[in-house]
Amino acid sequence: MSDEFLVRLRNIEKSFGLVKVLNDVSLEVARNEVVVIIGPSGSGKSTLLRTINLLGAPDFGEVTVAGRTLCRRRPGERPQTLSNGELRLAREEIGMVFQQSNLFMHRRVIENVMEGPVWVRQTPKDEARQQAAVLLKRFGLAEQAEKYPSQLSGGQQQRVAICRALAMRPDLMLFDEPTASLDPELVGEVLVVMKQLAEEGMTMVVVTHEMGFAQRVADRVVFMDGGAIVEEAKPDLLFSAPSNPRTRQFLKSVLDPLQAQI
To answer: What is the helix (H) or strand (E) element at residue 167, kind and residue range?
Structure first.
């Protein structure tokens, strides 16, 4: 695989029971690229994102990250998947932030950020604490370091979750609707952190309903519907002149929902 691409998904198919949620989906993500995936609920966005680090293995298709094939399943061939140990090592290079922060509520903020380096990478605790403190300061959370997550706002908790993922020094960051559970007034503080990461060259794949973020930060926007990629383009082109009628319909409904009902 060319070093140009950090992620390559080929012909991904995934079903839950009789419902096919991904239908022959292929996607490549270049190093230092920010790809934003948009689309209606139930279109397969989150399932596709989770496929990248095999939190949900595909029924068929091939997943390659950083030149390493994590999974290959093709009709008529014997499935190939990394061993649990190999997959764990591969996942160390992939950070992921979910809709909920999923912080350890019984541990202080700085302990949450230290957790991965200490227990996964075997980083000495003093060194991990120092690195965690630098991350928290970098994202405006230094004063929250010794607090418990329950003492933080939802936006602060999500920023801590981002710091926790970054503490592992990943090559790739995955965001699965990280602002979906936040009050509108807290969304901005999380998007600012994500924008900063993008400006610093972090490779990111983001599932979001925040169209402003997609327009301003993405290098490429992917529109999904019905388990398939319908259209993908640079944001200025996709938002100003989408080529697919379904894309146009979706964007009209989310950018001007009142007009879409008239």
So the answer is: none
